[in-house]
Amino acid sequence: MKRRKVGNLLALAILSTLSERPMHPYEMASILKSRGKDRDMGIKWGSLYTVVGNLRKHGLIEAVESNRDGARPERTVYRITDAGRDEMLDWLRELLAGLAPEEPKFVAGLSVMMWLGPDEVIALFRTRLAALDDEIASTRAELARLLEEVPRLVLLEIEYHLAIRAAEAEWVRSILGELTSGSMPGLAEWRTFHETGELPAEVAELVERGSTTD
Fold this sequence. Notes:
- This is PadR family transcriptional regulator.
- It holds the Pfam family PadR.
- Residues 14-88 form the Transcription regulator PadR N-terminal domain.
- It comes from Amycolatopsis speibonae.
- There is one protein chain.
- α7 (118-147) packs antiparallel against α8.
- The chain has helices spanning 9-18, 25-34, 37-40, 48-57, 82-97, 105-111, 118-147, 156-181, 187-196, 201-211; strands spanning 61-67, 75-80.
- 63% of the residues lie in helices and 6% in strands.
- By secondary structure, it is mainly alpha-helical.
- The two termini are 33 Å apart.
- It contains ten helices and two strands.
């Protein structure tokens, strides 16, 4: 992945919004929120004006006018520059075609979960599955609401998020089935480890192998 002059994904959201028409930051935020982009891009609204300033500093957007509405503070209207449009399109192509290295926290937990006992992991997975099911239901409801006002073309990221969450829920449900039925390979050894403190033979062998390669 390229190193961007302004690498915050909020910058991409701003550039895409300004591609529609010039506007001031408050308008940008309102439009992004109404389309659910704050969730899709993990936007932190407190950094909005900082990102706008950085985009302007690097010539990706430029101020076109300032206006005042009654007693409200003066608002600067920005538009995207040719350089900003080129940056946005290049960034989009990279994001859609490239595989960025991602290390979700859940994956990190899975990699060392054997240090918790099977029964506790089962309880934790049930908690996660309930949360996933709730999120999937609420996201589906939100998507249905947005589709009444916004074209599907600009909501595909929500569909993608739903598909990923649904796949995760299905996987967690299947692992729970193996753990609760006792069909998970190595489950007995895992349980014995937490009863006796003795590492399963396969794990002990891996540890020993690692210590002899130093």
